[in-house]
Amino acid sequence: MRVDANQRAMSIQELAERSGVPPRRIRYYVARGLLPPPVGRGPTARYGTAHLQRLKVIQQLRARRLGLEEIRSELTRVSESLDLQATVWYRWELRPGVILMAQADLPAHVREQVEALAEVARRLLADDRVRADDDEV
């Protein structure tokens, strides 16, 4: 699953705070296949709004006192009617192996700012004088 959607990627703690679901239960849902795995692993794992939306659906189903298999069946049905993963992205290659991405539905002024950022980043990455932190410039 791509971390996408209408907001920035979240850590498990941020997802827990926004959803009201404890991190331990989020991990349980991932392990049981009710929630897609995050992008990345460990402390760098990131969740998107699709995860948040799915957690809200799971909470509604739990409130109806459905079991895990019933929840799984309902999630399959709901997922078919909601496209939780669809997002279109703009992509800027800053140099080989370095890519900047932004959602296509950004307001025009924000997209222009990101394009300017991409141009600055290209120049910075092309500057051979910029080195690792421990090297002197």
N→C terminal distance: 40 Å
Helix content: 40-55%
List how many beta strands DSSP finds: 2
User: Mind telling me the C-alpha Rg?
Assistant: 19 Å
Order of the strands making up the biggest sheet = 1-2
Q: Which structural class best describes the helix and strand composition?
A: mainly alpha
The DSSP helix count reads: 5
Q: What's the order of the H and E elements?
A: HHHHEEH
Low-confidence stretches: 1-7
Sheet with the most strands? 2 strands, antiparallel
Give the strand content. 5-15%
Summarize model confidence as the mean pLDDT.
Answer: 80
Q: What sort of overall outline do the alpha carbons produce when their principal axes are compared? A: elongated
Q: Any key phrases for this structure?
A:
two-stranded antiparallel sheet, 2 strands, 9% strand, mainly alpha
